[in-house]
Write a structure and sequence with these properties.
Layout (H helix, E strand, L loop, with lengths): L2 H21 L4 H24 L6 H16 L8 H17 L8 H27 L3 H26 L3 E3 L3 E5 H21 L1 H4 L4 H28 L15 H22 L5
Antiparallel strand pairs: 1-2
Helix pairs in contact: 2-3, 2-5, 2-10, 3-4, 3-5, 4-5, 5-6, 5-10, 6-7, 6-9, 6-10, 7-9, 9-10
Length: 276
Amino acid sequence: MGALSKRILVALIAIPILLFLTFWNVILPFKLLVTAGLILALVEYLQLAYEDKIKPQRTEGILSLLIILLPLISKSLFSWTEGAGMLAVLLILNLAFLWSQRTVKRMVVTVSVTFFGVAYFGFFGGYFFHLRDLPQGAWLLLWLYISTWAYDTGGYFAGSLWGKHRLAPQVSPNKSWEGCAGGFALSLIGLYLLWEFMPAYSQIFNLMDVVILAVLLSFFGQIGDLVESIMKRSLSAKDSGSFFPGHGGVFDRIDSLLFNAPVLYFYLTLIKHIQI
């Protein structure tokens, strides 16, 4: 089975599961799925660091990520802020290092690499929970999915067919400006079709919002993809993992979503004044 066939097969299996949990009236399974995905992405990142001869704090990192996410999973049980959670995580990682067998000479690298991963997935990933908690949160998440997936799909095919001018050759040699144009075009088409044919969106957005969000989500989604490429290249890796055959790891699949989720959330809350 070719790489493209694997990509299509995995998408046909994974996307319906994600959409079902996104729209299910019981929110907890969706939040648990997101939590599991963020943990897997963190594990992939820490494994890349380990393979690059850095010894991150893997167990402590996973527990620290849970500390950040627990208030978002169950707001009725936990009330600490993300800032307080970050401070607690940094304290835990430092204390855990002091009681470990790692050499003190590598303390800054070990703690910094681990803390960066926890903060990265905890902070950006938290906006999946924030979006779901908004009124019509499931529909807003679908808007996020369609925009990001359409950009990835349009970029992949346009780049494969017409890509000649490299976007960032030192970071990601396969990315091209033609791919960016194709991704933006398909993202704009996807969002317009949602807005035109699904009443839930015409109640939230106008046509100008559709265009602005297509621009913003295309731009920041591409930045998220390039940031992950920088992280992988700095750790001498091509893919974050192989969890999804034909797609790479979990981190590879959510890199753009991680940047787009806060962009959409702040647009909704600051520009459209939508509140929980």
